[in-house]
Amino acid sequence: MTAPRHKTRVIAFPGAPNLPIFAALEEGFFAERDLAVEIELTPSSIYQAEEVAAGTFDVAMTAFDNVVAYSTGQGAAGPGVDPAYVAVMGATQLELSFVTAPEITRFEDLRGRSIALDAKDTGFAFVLSEMLERAGLAPGETDYVAVGATPQRWQSVQAGTHVGTLTIEPFTTLATRAGFQVLQKSTDILPAYQGGVMAANRGYREAQPEALSAYMRGYLAGLDWVRRPKNREAAAAHLQKHMPAIKPQAVAPVMASLLDPRSGLTPEGAILPEGMACVLDLRSRHGSGGALSEDIAPYIDLSLWEEIRKGAPA
Prior knowledge:
Layout lengths: L5 E7 L6 H9 L7 E7 L3 H9 L5 E5 H8 L13 E8 L4 E4 L13 E4 L5 H12 L8 E4 L3 H9 L5 E4 L3 H7 L3 E5 H4 L6 E6 H6 L1 H19 L4 H11 L5 H11 L14 H14 L16 H7 L5
Parallel strand pairs: 1-2, 1-3, 6-7, 6-8
Antiparallel strand pairs: 3-10, 4-10, 5-8, 5-9
């Protein structure tokens, strides 16, 4: 057997939004495009950026805010780390749920308590700051603690180390089934929010457009397959195989949230311009780097995605 013509190394956050990748691997959509895909799940956005900057990975399935942060010199890993991210297509609207310990039933209960975050100066932190501000809590009335990606944050809340964190599926469903509260969801206050994107390293985008296009095509085939009702049961099986922490009784709500464009995967991998504008606004108001331009153009390169959507040959 000959080796695949192309290879793409991907680093992603743990979570159900990786289902199109899982489906593409299991259903052979990457293999059909003569592409080998290596994927690693990151413990934090800082580790993800460091590894992409070091050339260990080519593509990051990451928050759009991370693309903005590192493009403007505000990345959480510090000024010496530049993953040279550019968003090549959308991935998720990404509903963020503010999960808290059972005894935390009101925002007022958070005063003087600590909240777990991936990093203190990232997009999710700004969503949380927006929630707290609208609820009447001033900066400094709660303590933000950098813990890492969603599994580590959820574990810290389970253990009682921190009283709350922001989660995505399947961790939101796991938390509510364990008796934890959801004080608020990002979709309750933000009409549009560009959560996840597929971000390529700019050097890789320039040097390996065929490999990147193959990965994007395989991902989009997986996304289309996942969204077809006839594949729902098989898609759920792929999700459970790759995320065994999801128990059978939790599969249905996780899949429902994931396949709702308002809370999960973006149909056809489209970007959400209003959602990107929201990310820029939140960073401008809650971040430490000052106001940013409202122009999203510096952070995106949709040329390959547009070629694919127009039916350009592989």
